[in-house]
């Protein structure tokens, strides 16, 4: 049961500290939609999504009014299309992306994830068709998000896929250059992708999941910041305990919303993802938490340690509040979506190399980073390879969502709008890595992956 005291605390967190439920995401299996004919497959997909998610948005809005908790997004994730559409006789999955977009608009969700491929060990015919379809698919749709998993701690890193994704990201940037290459904001490259992530752009409904499920993502950087302001200057034990207690309260809000949404939609509850996902709003920033912890700016010496403390204690507090904490729970560091991160970049405190170091201890990786449009595809592949190596060796999820903004250079500002925010174009190491990337093949899994 949720106590009266918890309700009062929650109301304060909502009014004063930017607490919100960032997303209710319905995961939908498309495995039973399989067909060899594109038209039939697309009709099956459209019917399945619109039937399953018909009441999703209304239910979210009803819960928002009833509990007074802002529910910012309502979203859908589906079975990776490279799997679900594997039987379709075609050379492009762009029509599938278009039908996903149409279904998303019909039910009113803001994003639909799952235009995805899992190629950590190699590509099937369907995987390759999907990857080749990404640039056009993201150019002609509004709400479709795409992801590709190129590595895992168990399988190693598929460097052929890493090389290919550098080219795909450049193509996607070119196809949407009239909109500051925003197509790349809907594309993420993973190592160790998880099957129950409710956050975009990397959400997909894993093959190990149920037929349909409700996953909820809760975000509360402002709440953590306010709590830490009350223990300013105190020791690390106090700091950690404060983060844990606050994360517990935030997760309880998500648990309440998830249980009610599950009940009303008659769909099983999956997981709560407690991720400190910032917004461009002042006071809703991971970087500002670092400042309260004692750093002048994000990127100063000690930043990686501060992030490690934050990430670990958010998870420790969250798992005490719900039996099913999952997804990418922890702290996100997306540059364009965090006012404090943007400020740190502009002041020269935060570089791409420092962000890469921080990804060793955050919950995802290099996220929403604008880079010069002149960046080569090999350099982007090198960035992906570095992040995948961090994920593979450390047995954690890492990801790359970089945006080579065609026609823009270091220091220029790019406006993406909404939750995607804005970002200064960051400098990228210009030394050549093409001979390394062009080797091809697969980097074997680390020795500690053999645990049987």
UniProtKB/TrEMBL annotation:
One of this protein's Pfam families, by short name? DUF711
- Source organism, top-level taxon: Bacteria
Assembly with partners or alone: Homodimer.
Query: Which family is it part of?
Result: Belongs to the UPF0210 family.
> What is the protein's given name?
UPF0210 protein UQ64_10555
